Amino acid sequence: MRSTRWAKNLLELIRRTSTDLPADVEAAIRRALQREKRGSRAAWILNTILENAALARKRNVPLCQDTGTLVFHFGVPVGFDTNALMAFTRDAVAQATRKGYLRQNTVDSITGASFETNIAPSSPVVCFQQVARKTVDARLVMKGGGSENMGRQYSLPDAELGAGRDLEGVRRCVLDAVWRAQGGGCAPGVVGVCIGGDRTTSHYCAKEQFLRKLNDRSEVKVLSRLEQRILKESRTLGVGPMGLGGRTTLLGVKIGTVSRLPASFFVSVSYMCWAFRRRGVLLSPEGGIQRWLY
Amino acid sequence: MKTLQYPFTESSIRTLRIGEEISLTGRIYTGRDRLHRYLAEEGASPVDLKDGAIYHCGPVVLRQDGKWAVLAAGPTTSMRQEPYMARIIEKFRVRVVIGKGGMGEATRKACRKCGCVYLQAVGGAAAVLATAVEQVNGVHMLREFGPAEALWDLNVKGFRAIVAMDTSGRSLFKRVETASEKKLRQLLA
Description:
The complex is a heterodimer.
Chain A (H helix, E strand, L loop, with lengths): L2 H17 L3 H13 L5 H19 L9 E8 L5 H17 L26 E6 L5 E8 L1 H4 L3 E4 L11 H15 L7 E7 L3 H10 L12 H17 L12 E8 L8 E7 L4 E7 L5 E4 L2
Helix pairs in contact in A: 1-4, 2-3, 6-8
Chain B lengths: L1 E4 L4 H5 L6 E10 L2 H9 L11 E3 L4 E5 L2 E6 L9 H11 L3 E4 L5 H10 L2 E4 L5 H6 L1 E8 L1 H4 L5 E15 L6 H17 L1
Parallel strand pairs in B: 1-2, 2-3, 3-6, 6-7
Antiparallel strand pairs in B: 2-9, 4-5, 7-9, 8-9
């Protein structure tokens, strides 16, 4: 494997993710601005957000100073050397930190000491999956702590919410989570939801929803309808951008499922801030760029 | 848009009302979790915070040609400082607290009592807010706390924010939360 090409292109993946808001997210923010009253606080905030996206792109600096947990999703061909890919990824993260695309954002959980280049046990997070293709599918999601702290997991039935083990119960959980988050996760955000799983796989699946484009629809009809319904209902809450009031509380709702045990019914909700940093690229087995995915 | 200039006088701070848009110019100090705990529990501040502003922020800073350059500097969640904020406002006579997501009852009361406001900057707008930073005057506690948690002494010009808690005890967040709770009850009825 050609190490210099891999290093260069993985660094480019990180740079783009950190500094260049994806087009589908920016378009959703523009649509939100149309809905808000002219001269309102909400419009002022959304305009600042759009200005920030343009400035970060132009100046090649992070959209948000919290460059987040780095989660790489790799789909690799059969027989591909994932150890080497892991090493290239860690090198690229260290390089991106030195260049200021990433903040020194990783600390020891006991001492609080900062890791110099974000290289630590479990940082970055790297997930490999074998795929029946000849190319390497590399995707990166960066999620900041403010939004991550807004995530919740419900175990149904939940008497207080009146949420039973059905889609209506799921709806009640998601609306509750969105209300509790207020502007704390940097609204307007996107919620990734998972129905089912155990506690771990449920949260993982909720976050996997962030790999979907905002304008896609779930292939499962009832879920697609539920996504649209919750998105519409979120507008009536009046939480608004940054929680200071307005018509836009969410930019999207994405729901997935995994199977569960008969005894468990988890609903996991992950909140992604408006600074929705997600990029992906198809690379040849030698590390050359074939096509950008977002 | 109202302008505020460091040092912030109590009388000018007491004229501010929730919802007002502010453009802030002059000196501000960044600080987050570790610094707040230190200031509240241990004592002396390395800088004079009187009539000053604390900004809840851990910036992306690079050392370029012997100088510090702030690349990204948006607000971090303020609520984590709630156990310490009221004591810091009283002890050091801080006039302006800037952050995101709002703060709790103790801070709201301290703002009213001491003549301090809480400003909400646009969360995530790190590039825009970094361009308001004109100069890095210095950095304190860098070795102890690391770059994201250190106290950065900055000069800003035209730094934008919205008054979210004022000196008469009003909170914009509280209002939105109460109103949205009503709507939530309707949706879940």
